[in-house]
Amino acid sequence: MAAVSVTVENGIARVTISSPPVNALGHAVRVGLKEAAVKIATDEAIRGAVILAEGATFPAGADIAEFPDVPEPSHGEVFDMITALDKPVVAALHGNTLGGGLELALACHYRVAAANTKLGFPEVNLGLLPGARGSQRLPRLIGAEAALGMMLTGKPIGADKAEKIGLVDETVPAGTQDDAAIAMVTALIAKDGPLPRTTEDSEWTTKDRADPDIFDRIKADYGRLFRGVIAPDAILTCVKAAVELPYEKGVEVETSEFLRLLNSDQSRALIHVFFAMRETVKVPDIPKDTPLIDVNSVGVIGAGTMGGGIAMCFANAGIAVKLVEIKPEALERGLSVIRKNYENTAKKGRMTAEDVEMRMGLITGTLEMDDLADVDLVIEAVFESMEIKEKVFTRLDAIAKDGAILASNTSFLDLNHIAAMTKRPEMVVGLHFFSPANVMPLLEVVRGDKSSDSVIATGMKLGKALRKTPVLAGVCDGFIANRLMFPYMVASQQMLLKGTPMQEIDAAMKAYGFAMGPIALLDLIGLDVITFPGDVTMTGELVKLERRGQKLNGGFYDYDEKRRSTPSPAALEVIEKVREANGIETAPALSPEEIVASLLYPVINEGAKILEEGIALRAGDIDVAAILGYNWPSYQGGPMCWADIHGLGTIISGLEAMGIEPAKLLKEKAETGSSFT
Ligand code: 3HC
Ligand code: NAI
């Protein structure tokens, strides 16, 4: 089917968009819509039109894959042609009416929406703004405040709310929107009245113009969303223009701001992340028709920090879980932590008391591993000790039914060794959750040498079912995210020893975009969790002083009752002591740029090695793992995308200056002028 087709019946043109999977407004659709607009204008038999879309959704936006070069005709030009028509045009909306799709809807004279429609401007999530007149039309239709709410948060609203605020004219049951739009256009033709256009000033324009503080107020309300990113200010500039200037002048402002954003590093990074997030599930060597294993019941061994969170993930997805412990106290503690977590969620109003009971009802505690004989999947989350894991897997092999998947949540241990404890290594896989497992969105699916295609494909599918982003990893010490970030943590400790103050290190990484710097992060994770190599022994020394971080007595920082931190005199003494014991000389404190380079270049180098060794399938997977596992700021694109933007040559010279040998792949990419992403 053509991307856009036009049929005419009873004087009404039915313009149908068909561009699967999401009807994105790529070049062919724009050309088709432009031709349709010309036909509607010039064909005397046509007295009105509806614009609708086949498949699951009205256009979900511009075709992001075209960016940053958008071939003519531009979206805005086509949309303006539709608005200018003097025959009524009604949009029939359903599904995800987002970005350019919503701009197309705004270009029509009226909008009918199926009850299941979601309407939104998610451009800000791509470092962009609604650049096809959306920033100019929406404030005229619903007012600057509501329009900015949608554009700054990027969150879509439902059809009902859209009707309430005047964004759509009529909401109808799903599936009837096309007929309803035709009925509306038929009535409009009969009425032959003036057509409303979102290019014209409105009551809202007058009202917003008379409100001198409106933009300061909105900026204060949404202040958090402006941190580190450039799109929100550009959005504000455009909406100000919509309120203060005539449409044509506002469009000039919008176009120039949109192009500035489209060619920015932040938008390049965020668009990379959009596609990378969707690509992780694609495993090139596993055929699409690989049979999946049904997972309807699950066993989790160990009800500690991870086991409890993992059990919650399954209960949240409606899958029954048996939770196995060795000691009754541990089981009781584990179950009560789970209950407390659910009850806290209920207290915040994000779950009902019935939900709590329903989910708890899906989790059965047991002290008998034999109870796992009938489950489809077992996830082991016992202490990180090979000796214990060997025993658990030997036993599990004797108990689990044929065809059951046997998974380990190990962070660092050799999955192939664990698999070798069983007579069915092809059924063994790593399912590496991040702490807290019920919250963190990353799942590393670790492929052992012998893991079968079915087991891997099921692991990836399961990740999605648990609403996580699965990333495939090979076997190595730390897999992707932990291995990648270990050099970052080590470098931060070395930096402390060389004399850069902890608060300056943390501030520089916060300014880069992390929620907290590496020293504060260590305090949060717990100083007893990571063991550092060589002469970097501060965490061990602090643990000896019973300082384990935020959870016990503070760590590098002291914390007051409001969790405000100040560098701890005890920690400063420890740093001094370790420095002296190892004969380390202090150097002048590093600048913020030097801190970022010294901490991140080693991460890039590790990422290059991870890629070179085939531990990650693609650079984008590494970026996703860092963003979802370690809160790497997505507007920096993740480590590999950031490296490409920052310059591979610069990173190589920086590594050499630090005495670190650059990875082979990094050098190759730099020498051939290519990039990771
Ligand atoms: N352009 C190009 N491809 C797109 C796309 C878009 N706008 N939206 C989705 N796709 C692709 C995805 O990459 C994916 O491809 P794949 O199957 O090859 O991996 C496929 O469509 C299906 O997407 P999802 O897996 O995300 O499907 P879901 O059903 O989970 O979600 C969705 C659907 C909510 C529409 C989600 O895809 C989405 O949020 N899309 C992006 C929406 C967006 O950001 N729109 C604004 C674009 S910018 C713009 O319009 C600028 C304008 O103002 C000028
Ligand atoms: P934990 O110490 O909180 O919990 C381990 C639990 O396993 C304890 O309750 C213990 O009683 C139980 N257990 C020990 N042997 C058992 C056996 N034979 N049968 C049944 N239960 C047994 O440990 P945590 O932090 O939950 O770690 C578990 C695993 O998850 C480790 O392999 C760890 O490396 C991994 N992991 C930990 C993360 C973290 O941040 N804590 C993150 C990701 C993975």
Automatic annotation (TrEMBL):
| PROSITE patterns, per database record | ENOYL_COA_HYDRATASE
Where in or outside the cell? Peroxisome
The protein depicted here goes by the name 3-hydroxyacyl-CoA dehydrogenase
- The main location is other
The pathway this protein participates in, as annotated, is: Lipid metabolism; fatty acid beta-oxidation
Instruction: Report if keyword RNA-binding is assigned.
Output: no
Origin: domain of life: Bacteria
**Region forming the signal peptide:** none
> What gene codes for this chain?
fadJ
Report the sequence similarity comment from the record.
Belongs to the enoyl-CoA hydratase/isomerase family.
